[in-house]
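Methods — Computational structure assignment.
A single polypeptide chain was analysed. Its primary sequence is given first, followed by the predicted tertiary structure written as structure tokens.
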Amino acid sequence: MKFLKTIFLIYLYQFAFFSNHLSAIEFNPWDLDINQRVLDRKTISQIIIDPRVNEYRLVLIASERYPYNFKTSSFAFFFRLKTVEEANNLMHKIDRYLETGQQITVKLYGSEIKGVIFHEPYEKLP
């Protein structure tokens, strides 16, 4: 009986150990290109429409997450858009997408966003 308990505990330990490692696929941000960044709702504090002379900018104000946010300042990434309607539509689209808990990958040129990748198809979102 003691032998069966020992075998059972060994199998239980192996199942718990290996299933935890196999199901937890992690994303390593160091594997990204230097011009890409992954953003989610926890890093983006505000989404703002900034009117300029010949354009509108949709600004994503971001900050680092805990514990890396100690004594840091916020930074901004922006889209260049021609009309306020485009900026408003994109703002609502990004806001709804980030509220679902998903992440976006942005392609940067300095602080300007040149492209965005939604990790889930947008059509599946509420």
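Note: The first strand starts at residue 36 and ends at 39.
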